[in-house]
Amino acid sequence: MTELSFDIASLHDFYAVGGSPEHVIALAHERLAAADDSGIFLHLVPAAQARSAALSLGTFDPVAKPLWGIPFAVKDNIDVAGLPTTAACPDFAYLPTEHAPVVARLLEAGAILIGKTNLDQFATGLVGVRTPYPAPKNPFDPERVPGGSSSGSAVAVARRCVSFSLGTDTAGSGRVPAGLNNLVGLKPTLGALSTRGVLPACRTLDCVSIFALNVADARRIFDLVAHFDTKDPYARPLVAHEGKVRMLGVPRQQDRLFFGDGAAEKAYEKALSEISRAGLPMREIDMSDFFAVARLLYEGPWVAERRAAIRAFMDAKPEALFPVTRNIIASADRFSATDMFEALYKLQALRRTSEKIWDDIDALVVPTAPIAPKVAELEADPIGPNSRLGTYTNFVNLLDLCALAVPGPFRSDGMPAGTTLIAPRGHDRALTDLGARIFSGTGGYDAHQGSKAA
User: 164-169 and 112-117: which strand pairing?
Assistant: First the structure.
């Protein structure tokens, strides 16, 4: 029972021969206790309530309810009726009266909520430790950061406490934690999943992301929750591209930035070798425009969107914010409306020049996490490692691209690194097809079975 896999197919096989979701809920809590990590969840659904939800599912029917009995978690900046939304700021907490649409669709499909997870406060960060609560521990090395901002969501899946989880992604928060926790992380096309009921970080860039144990599960969740929500001003109909990926792009040598982390560099090189052996052709791409866009996000006025999201609260109670978070968001005050327009003009020019690469390639393959910082490094420098983690993620939402992080060969120190596939908007399903092929080709590494160092 303890070794029961939590991927959707395995759980449905378990249910098909008489297994009960009550047992799975008990196992989820057993694994959470074994993890000895109080930083993963901020709010747990009471066990009796979860069991009641399981009983209400009726007879096992994965056709009527495609997620029948599948345990999941939700990042605590996404509304769940009856559970507080805190965004990792206790003084900000409020109690929603209705579910965010993405949560409602999962519950309607038969999924069972286990709880709400920890995050970098107000989804501001890629490290996962900017929280006044205990920070989630990286399952592979507790001295390393878990990645953020969706830290608890990733660790909950990596620890097999849930089958999948929802995170959010503005600058990489649905991908960096996937890379550092050996998971699949799907960052959909902007507007494909409703962000109604999600506390904004940068509202024009935010999307709900999916953490899963394999690509098939991520694709299944995406297909269930992707819909055009007319009540969400930033939702857009998804015009899907169904074509196959024929040519991959990789950063040219001078654009492969690992900041002295040789273990990350070698893991990426091994991933490229295995992709090549899988028969996928690659060509080198100039990443200069992408890096210029990334700098716009972290050095430019988009931080003002974070300020706008919590303006009244921050003005009234600045002391309630985590110090690093407060300093970052307060930096918005140095930008003017003129700065914003100038940045938008520069972004539009970079969009035009960068889009030419898609004439030559179908998808871009980059490192997910070019470094694996230690928590102690963040204590000495809370900004630098965080910025470096976003090297290959920060530009994606600004350029209206979709992305899929997949596990890859492990680093020589036993840490996962992963690779990320990037494509133009609407290519979400094409990326999952490609990701399934690459995921299989790299061996399907399983954190629950321990590290498999390169």
Answer: unpaired
Residue 247's alpha-carbon distances to 187, 281, 354, 411, in angstroms, are 21, 6, 17, 26
β-pair partners for 285? 251
Q: In what side-by-side order are the strands of the sheet with 184-187?
A: 41-44, 112-117, 71-75, 164-169, 207-212, 184-187, 401-406, 419-424, 363-367, 248-251, 282-285
Say what the pLDDT of residue 446 is.
44
Q: Which of 2-6, 208-212, 445-449 has the lowest mean pLDDT?
A: 445-449
Q: Residue 408: name the closest of 266, 218, 246, 291 by CA.
A: 266
pLDDT given for residue 244 in this prediction: 77
The CA-atom distances, in angstroms, between 406 and each of 172, 210, 422, 443 are: 14, 12, 11, 11
Q: Is the peptide bond before 149 cis (omega within 30 degrees of 0)?
A: yes
In CATH terms, the superfamily for domain 8-225 is Amidase signature (AS) domain (3.90.1300.10)
The pLDDT value recorded for residue 447 is 40
Q: What is the DSSP letter of 296?
A: H
- Tens digit of pLDDT for each residue in 218-228? 999 999 999 99
Residue numbers annotated as active site: 75, 149, 173
- 248-435 homologous superfamily: Amidase signature (AS) domain (3.90.1300.10)
What are 185-233's pLDDT values in tens digits?
A: 999 999 999 999 999 999 999 999 999 999 999 999 999 999 999 999 9
Phi/psi of residue 55, nearest 5 degrees: -65, -30
Sorted by sequence, the CB contacts under 8 Å of residue 235 that are 6+ apart come out as: 191, 194, 195, 196, 228, 229
- The reported pTM is 0.96
Closest CA to 199 of 95, 117, 122, 297: 122
- Given a cut of 80, is residue 1 above it in pLDDT? no
Query: What is the pLDDT confidence band of residue 2, given thresholds at 50, 70 and 90?
Result: low
Q: Count CB-CB contacts under 10 A for residue 233.
A: 10
Residues of the chain with CATH 3.90.1300.10: 8-225, 248-435
* CA-based nearest residue to 138, from 375, 299, 406, 296: 375
Indicate if the pLDDT at residue 453 is higher than 60: no
